[in-house]
Amino acid sequence: MVLKRIGGFLLFYVCLFSCMNLHAQKKDTLNGSHEKDSVKLDFVARMQAFAKRSSKSSAEEFAADKAIISQIKTFDEIKRTMQKAKIYLKANLDTPGTKLELEAIDKDFAIAGDGIFTNKGSAQTFRNLTASSKILSELLNKANVRKIKLDTRQGELNNFRYQLDSLMSEPALFKFPTDSATLMKYLQKIKVLAYETNPVDSSLKLASNNVQTLLNQVNMTVFKLQSSLEEIESYQKDMANHTYKREFDNIWAPATYSRPFGEILEFSKTKGLLTLSFYAENNAGKLIMLLLLVVTSFVYLRSLRNIYRESNLLKPDFDGQLVLRYPVLSAILMVLSLFQFFFISPPFVLNVIFWSVSCGCLTIIFNKYVNKYWMRVWLIMFVFFLISAMGNLVLQASRIERWFMLLVSIFGVVVGLIILMKGQREKLREKWIIWSIAFMVLLEFIAITANIFGRYNLAKTLFIGGFLNVVIAILFLWAVRLINEGLFLAFNVYSGQDRKLFYLNFEKVGKKAPLLFYVLLFIGWLVLVGRNFPSFDYLSEPLQNFFTQERILGGYTFSIYNLVLFIAIMLISVIVSKVVSFFASDGQFASGKENKHERQGIGSWLLLVRISILCIGLFLAIAAAGIPVDRITIVLGALGVGIGFGLQTLVNNLVSGLIIAFEKPVNVGDIVDIDGQGGKMKSIGFRSSVISNWDGADVVMPNGDLLNAHLINWSLGGNRKRMSITIGIAYDSDLEKCRQILIGILDNDQRINKNPGPVVQFEQFSNSSIDLRIYFWTKHIGDIPATKSDLIVAIADAFKTNGIVIPFPQQDVYLHSPEKPDPEKTDL
């Protein structure tokens, strides 16, 4: 088409040129004005008509070319869209899986609704409402996940259909060629495209209908779960607002509703296990972290125990060292007591598992340590707790349970009063336990009264709360005691330069834990006991909202909870990093070279381990707090400006610390000489390192100076060093005999290496003696002073025995007096 258009223009210019020549010839031959005007008018008209026809033809050809290009692009786009749609349709929707999950949700919904929507009984129970609420919340989350997936797929299918419809409606597709042959070919191409598109469009429509059907079912399930949760919430709110409301008749009155107790136990067990499985699945990461913390604490306590055992510091009765008696049990008890607060709103059955395991560990630790009377008291309270906990796992009220609760509460009150009146308080190690037992007696007495007069929920809450308060108090008191002991014992053997390794001044702390520990203990006790009351969630809701409410500062959105979480994770990382420093101790209490070498090996990798802990902690803190990455880049940019202006030295020392950690020119425990400072490497930190010199002082040297100095590391060469001693012997001495004597002395000293062996060389003839020098290698650089001293003594004794003289410098002074002249003979 372009060639035709160019050819037309060339033809036009040829004709125009010919006409102009003809006109010039006519102008020369004809002189009449009339003929001249006629020819001129006829030429202009023909040219204008020709121009119009050419312009119209060119525009039509241009439009045709443009339509062809647009059609090609549209065909290609339709084919690409169909290909994408086919690939997307191959990833079939998990319709059977969705239906099975909906069926499982309906089945679990029936379990959760037992005792609330079905088999209601005379009144609702707080524990059953709580368990059902947790199950329904989890089911709602699962249904919402399916709903989001189906909504996304439905949107993608509709998007493909919309793209195909819009492409098939493109106006360029309906601009047909004027040539009949070209038109037939184009129509055939359209027919093939329609034939290819029709199955894809039908598949998209069918898939969209299937997705919509599933989506309708999921929407109905979501609506049902939301409605049920709202109904349970209204029950819980009404129960919290009417805590003292009577739910049943007096305990001696005939029952108005009866359900087999075995059936109640069965559905309680099923519902309890279901809540536990859901919670464990959602908090698998926390459970793994809990296990890792237990292992880490065990390794720490076992290492501490080994140090005390090797240094003969362990007491037979473990007084003040109870945490070292059973390191694994102490680790479990301490970690469970603290880490359980990281589990947000756990099911009661999980708490029972945590508390039961902790009680079992404490029972074994108590064995033959506490007084027999208080050991029996602890076992009785442990049994009371297990009985009340099992009773609290029963989710629906029954007359059998009410009588059971009444008898156990009466027995608990009697036992508590006996302990309060006749207990051996002078032998009680933790006096606060008396107050918790008194509080138990009060709660159980109120529970008895509420149970008798039909206040079932109040009675059950006080029933479990009374015994739980004693067990939690004892667990926390002893957990704090063990933590304090572990830190205090580590402080006693830690030889690092930081006297406040754990951010606590243990010079002011003895066997009694700091007041802060007891404040945190009381808060934790209050939270764990308060969870059993229906009004706890509503009383704590304003505080939760304060921490979880999102706030805006400039363009950054944050919450107090995220900030606290960030600070807590970083603080834990720093503390763990500092605890790891315990393994960098110089082993002053360790015995044996093998143990010392092992501890020095740990210390050599200490800096890398601490850096890894801090980096992991920073990463987890940023991820947990939800800090955007772009904000981090801004902070890094600001740090770059600070480094450029005034932090070069600090950064140089930090980078030098990393170089030392990876390149390892020096390790903890190495014997070094640095700019005249000789000693042993005590620690390698982030910014500076500590060298313990031979005078007993600790020299703090920045890492940058350490790398830039002429570092002599004797340990890299095997801690060997060559020494020499210069000796002078008399000129009349037997030189070969001297050599043999010296070689024998050197060979008999076990501190001197045999390979390379010692060497005796005669140096020079000096003024008073023949000088010789002995060269020898000591096996360890630390043996040099004693070896040299012993050799001097041995050589002096051997020479004296063999009659070899060691001369000393001396000078003879001769006084010459000339004769005095005779005055009489003097010439005048």
From TrEMBL:
<dbReference type="GO" id="GO:0005886">
    <property type="term" value="C:plasma membrane"/>
</dbReference>
<dbReference type="InterPro" id="IPR006685">
    <property type="entry name" value="MscS_channel_2nd"/>
</dbReference>
<dbReference type="InterPro" id="IPR052702">
    <property type="entry name" value="MscS-like_channel"/>
</dbReference>
<feature type="domain" description="Mechanosensitive ion channel MscS C-terminal">
    <location>
        <begin position="725"/>
        <end position="806"/>
    </location>
</feature>
<keyword id="KW-0732">Signal</keyword>
<comment type="similarity">
    <text>Belongs to the MscS (TC 1.A.23) family.</text>
</comment>
<dbReference type="InterPro" id="IPR049278">
    <property type="entry name" value="MS_channel_C"/>
</dbReference>
<feature type="transmembrane region" description="Helical">
    <location>
        <begin position="560"/>
        <end position="584"/>
    </location>
</feature>
<feature type="transmembrane region" description="Helical">
    <location>
        <begin position="515"/>
        <end position="533"/>
    </location>
</feature>
<feature type="transmembrane region" description="Helical">
    <location>
        <begin position="633"/>
        <end position="655"/>
    </location>
</feature>
<feature type="domain" description="Mechanosensitive ion channel MscS">
    <location>
        <begin position="649"/>
        <end position="715"/>
    </location>
</feature>
<feature type="transmembrane region" description="Helical">
    <location>
        <begin position="403"/>
        <end position="420"/>
    </location>
</feature>
<keyword id="KW-1003">Cell membrane</keyword>
<dbReference type="InterPro" id="IPR010920">
    <property type="entry name" value="LSM_dom_sf"/>
</dbReference>
<feature type="transmembrane region" description="Helical">
    <location>
        <begin position="378"/>
        <end position="397"/>
    </location>
</feature>
<feature type="transmembrane region" description="Helical">
    <location>
        <begin position="466"/>
        <end position="494"/>
    </location>
</feature>
<keyword id="KW-0472">Membrane</keyword>
<feature type="transmembrane region" description="Helical">
    <location>
        <begin position="284"/>
        <end position="301"/>
    </location>
</feature>
<dbReference type="GO" id="GO:0008381">
    <property type="term" value="F:mechanosensitive monoatomic ion channel activity"/>
</dbReference>
<dbReference type="InterPro" id="IPR011014">
    <property type="entry name" value="MscS_channel_TM-2"/>
</dbReference>
<protein>
    <submittedName>
        <fullName>Small-conductance mechanosensitive channel</fullName>
    </submittedName>
</protein>
<feature type="transmembrane region" description="Helical">
    <location>
        <begin position="432"/>
        <end position="454"/>
    </location>
</feature>
<feature type="signal peptide">
    <location>
        <begin position="1"/>
        <end position="24"/>
    </location>
</feature>
<feature type="transmembrane region" description="Helical">
    <location>
        <begin position="322"/>
        <end position="342"/>
    </location>
</feature>
<dbReference type="Pfam" id="PF21082">
    <property type="entry name" value="MS_channel_3rd"/>
</dbReference>
<dbReference type="InterPro" id="IPR023408">
    <property type="entry name" value="MscS_beta-dom_sf"/>
</dbReference>
<dbReference type="InterPro" id="IPR011066">
    <property type="entry name" value="MscS_channel_C_sf"/>
</dbReference>
<dbReference type="Pfam" id="PF00924">
    <property type="entry name" value="MS_channel_2nd"/>
</dbReference>
<feature type="transmembrane region" description="Helical">
    <location>
        <begin position="605"/>
        <end position="627"/>
    </location>
</feature>
<feature type="transmembrane region" description="Helical">
    <location>
        <begin position="348"/>
        <end position="366"/>
    </location>
</feature>
<keyword id="KW-1133">Transmembrane helix</keyword>
<keyword id="KW-0812">Transmembrane</keyword>
